[in-house]
């Protein structure tokens, strides 16, 4: 199975801000979060609400909250 390069971030003020989200090598798990996982992410990064992205192998994906 191919390992993908995945970076999570949110956008604010014209900049992309890194979000430290630990995920395994599963691509599906990297772009979908359970409600409890999303709650933890938003507690740490409140500006990511409705503004969370994943960069997967150079392709930007907007993640729905």
What does this structure look like?
By secondary structure, the chain is of the alpha+beta class. About 25% of the residues lie in helices and about 30% in strands. The protein has a four-stranded antiparallel sheet with strand order 2-1-3-4.
Largest sheet: 4 strands, antiparallel
Q: What's the gyration radius in Å?
A: 11 Å
Please write the string of helix (H) and strand (E) elements: EEHHEE
Strand portion: 25-35%
Low-pLDDT runs:
none
Which features characterize this protein?
65 residues, alpha+beta, four-stranded antiparallel beta sheet, 2 helices
Tell me briefly what this model is.
The protein has 65 residues and is α+β, with helices and mostly antiparallel strands. The chain contains two helices and four strands.
What is this structure's SSE topology?
Elements: E1 6-12, E2 15-18, H1 27-31, H2 35-44, E3 52-56, E4 59-63
Antiparallel strand pairs: 1-2, 1-3, 3-4
